[in-house]
């Protein structure tokens, strides 16, 4: 309803400079045509009145009736009134030609309907001019003595009655056509404005959607990079620190720790290559770089950092959607990363449960839960990434300190058929 009211109050933009220049040329062309027509009619003696004024005066009247058309779109209401008044005045002077003034009058009525921004004034201005024309026509029909019927006139109607019906019918068709096509032009312009507005709104919506998609993609890439890099860098940091501490006293242990750093770096680079391959690939349905079958690799990496890790799979393993598998893997990865970085734990329990209605992954430790990056003092970016991943699949995340000691992260993904997301 609001939109309808808005368009009911719509006003057409004023004519452009190019349109105004075109009106000048059109108006001058009509003036030239009126002068030529008046001259030809006078020379042929085909005047509509018995005693027309001198040719010079007739030419002036023809130019005066047509000249206002040069500003027909700039001042449409004033033009239709001026042309109407001058038309009747020229008729009162009994000028010889009626065709060119009629064309000018048609253009004026049409332009008022198509361009007058005040629609009430446009309607009543045109009706007033049309009404005045019919009053003038009626006065002429009454005041003028009936002419002799043309030779060969025949039919059931009296020639005078037939002339009246013909004159009224012709003028009705003439004026109603000008009125109707003016309204059609106005409606067409309004519809075009509506289409342009809708197109602009659609472009804005598409731009907003595109921007939103870009932001979402950036967040996803940042989350993936965080998940891939943070875990391996944490393990590398722990192993490098261990190697530094025992470098002088136990070179064999330091060498083993450095080999773990080297292997972890290679694994991180491999995962980064896989991630970049997925991001660059244009094909859909490409296999994700990680999944539940690689959780054991995370367990092995955590053990190499000095943790005692128990890994258990409960329930009957079944295929899960690729997106769920990746997200479950990343939850375990992030949870183990937090344990290595912040928990100061000794034991970690990693469980994967295939339930009838859900897939669950759970990571618990015996460290100092709720401190450092996992609690209120850290950035929380890892937990934020977990929640975003799980929310995409309609799952739930529970993360917090355990009642006795340690920390627990549990993610639940609703059961879904393979291949869905």
Outline the structure in words.
This protein has 421 residues and is α+β, with helices and mostly antiparallel strands. Among the domains are: 2-145, no CATH class; 290-302 and 309-421, 2-Layer Sandwich (Heat Shock Protein 90), CATH 3.30.565.10. 64% of the residues lie in helices and 9% in strands. The chain has a 5-stranded mixed sheet, covered by helices on one side. A hairpin with a 5-residue loop joins strand 4 and strand 5. Helix 4 (76-92) runs antiparallel to helix 5, helix 4 runs parallel beside helix 6 (119-143) and helix 9 packs parallel to helix 10 (322-343). It is rod-shaped. It starts with a helix and ends in a 7-residue tail after the last strand. Mean pLDDT is 80; it is low at 282-287, 375-380 and 417-421.
Q: Mind telling me the C-alpha Rg?
A: 45 Å
Coarse morphology: rod-shaped
Quaternary organization: single chain
Number of strands: 5
Report a brief summary of the structure.
The chain is of the alpha+beta class and 421 residues long. The chain has eleven helices and five strands; from the N terminus they run αααααααααβαββαββ. Helix 4 (76-92) runs antiparallel to helix 5 (99-115) and helix 4 (76-92) packs parallel to helix 6 (119-143).
């Amino acid at each position: 309803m609001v939109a309808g009211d808005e368009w009911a109050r719509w006003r057409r933009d004023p004519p452009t400079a190019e349109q105004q220049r075109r009106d000048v040329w059109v108006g001058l062309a009509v003036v030239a045509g009126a002068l030529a027509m008046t001259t030809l009619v006078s020379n042929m003696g085909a005047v509509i009145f018995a005693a027309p004024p001198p040719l010079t005066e007739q030419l002036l009247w023809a130019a005066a009736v047509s000249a206002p058309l040069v500003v027909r779109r700039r001042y449409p209401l004033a033009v239709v009134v001026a042309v109407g008044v001058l038309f009747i005045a020229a008729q009162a002077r009994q000028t010889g030609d009626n065709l060119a003034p009629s064309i000018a009058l048609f253009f004026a009525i049409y332009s008022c309907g198509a361009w007058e921004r005040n629609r009430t004034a446009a309607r009543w201005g045109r009706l007033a001019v049309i009404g005045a024309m019919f009053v003038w026509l009626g006065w002429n029909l009454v005041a003028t003595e009936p002419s002799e019927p043309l030779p060969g006139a025949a039919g059931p109607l009296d020639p005078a009655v037939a002339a009246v019906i013909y004159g009224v019918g012709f003028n009705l068709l003439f004026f109603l056509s000008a009125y109707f096509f003016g309204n059609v032009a106005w409606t067409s312009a309004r519809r075009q404005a509506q289409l342009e507005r809708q197109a602009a709104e659609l472009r804005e919506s598409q731009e907003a959607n595109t921007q939103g998609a870009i932001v979402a993609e950036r967040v996803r890439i940042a989350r993936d990079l965080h998940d891939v890099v943070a875990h391996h860098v944490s393990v590398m940091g722990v192993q490098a620190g261990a190697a530094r501490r025992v470098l002088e006293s136990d070179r064999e242990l330091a060498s083993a720790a450095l080999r773990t750093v080297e292997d972890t770096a290679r694994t991180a680079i491999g995962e980064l290559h896989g991630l970049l391959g997925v991001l660059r690939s244009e094909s859909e349905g490409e296999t994700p770089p990680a999944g539940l079958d690689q959780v054991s690799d995370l367990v092995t990496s955590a053990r190499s950092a000095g943790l005692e890790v128990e890994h258990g799979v409960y329930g009957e393993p079944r295929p899960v959607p690729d997106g769920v598998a990746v997200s479950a893997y990343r939850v375990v990865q992030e949870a183990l990363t937090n344990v290595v970085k912040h928990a100061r734990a000794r034991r970690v329990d990693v469980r994967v449960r295939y339930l009838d209605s859900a897939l669950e992954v759970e990571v618990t430790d015996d460290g100092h839960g709720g401190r450092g990056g996992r609690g209120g003092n850290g950035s929380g970016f890892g937990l934020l990434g977990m929640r975003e991943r799980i929310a995409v699949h309609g799952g739930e995340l529970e993360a917090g300190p355990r009642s006795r000691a340690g920390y627990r992260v549990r993610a639940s993904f609703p059961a879904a058929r393979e291949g869905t997301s």
